[in-house]
Amino acid sequence: MGNTLKKLIFAGFMTVVMNAQAAELKVGYVQVDKILQEAPQTVESGKKLEREFSPRSQELDRMSKQIKELEAALDKEGLTISEVERRNKERDVQNIKIEFQRKQRELREDINLRKNEELGSLQDRINKAVQSVAEADGYDLVVYSGVAYASKKIDITDKVLKLLGKK
């Protein structure tokens, strides 16, 4: 009886394996790095961030120029002004430098936050585009970058880019 049970289990297992082999699995591959470089939304996002942070960046440029001018004036007048006046000007320059560094750090942090927000939004759009292409073309599985090897015949990156370009 034990031998018969083993034969039945083996026959059932073989049936499942053969059915799985008979059903073809359609696999697709997407190069996320290529999409992030070429998608129109990436360019739009970069321009949007540039417009958003341009005034603050220009303010930092003005502050940097002001610091250089004050330091040049201090070097030029350093020997002809009193010690107290020179120390006051040095302190003023140092305070402006500290303010400049604070604003520069805040700008970098704000830019990084916004870049991450924009990237998250873009990733959502990419995922939706990948899903649309996969469903329309009947893919069973789509994998992203980071695979050891993917044939060009399963690469659907250009289809996803085309869909993203439609807006």
Using brief descriptors, characterize the structure shown.
single chain; 167 residues; mainly alpha; Protein Binding, DinI Protein, Chain A; two-stranded parallel ribbon; 5 helices; 2 strands
Descriptive overview:
- This protein is mainly alpha-helical and 167 residues long.
- The protein has one domain: Protein Binding, DinI Protein, Chain A, CATH 3.30.910.
- The protein is 78% helix and 5% strand.
- The protein has a two-stranded parallel sheet with strand order 1-2.
- It starts with a helix and ends with a helix.
- The model has no long low-confidence stretch (mean pLDDT 85).
Low-confidence residue ranges: none
Structural class: mainly alpha
What would you say the CATH architecture is?
A: 2-Layer Sandwich
Mean pLDDT: 85
Query: What is the helix tally?
Result: 5
CATH topology: Protein Binding, DinI Protein, Chain A
What is the overall shape?
rod-shaped
By CATH's scheme, which homologous superfamily applies?
A: Skp domain
Rg value = 31 Å
* Relative helix content: over 70%
**Strands in their spatial order, largest beta sheet:** 1-2
Reading the helices and strands in chain order gives HEHHHEH
* Intertermini distance: 66 Å
Number of domains: 1
What's the oligomerization state? Answer: single chain
Proportion in β-strands: under 5%
Report the biggest beta sheet as strand number plus sense, adding barrel if it closes.
Answer: 2 strands, parallel
CATH domain class:
Alpha Beta
By DSSP, the count of extended strands is 2
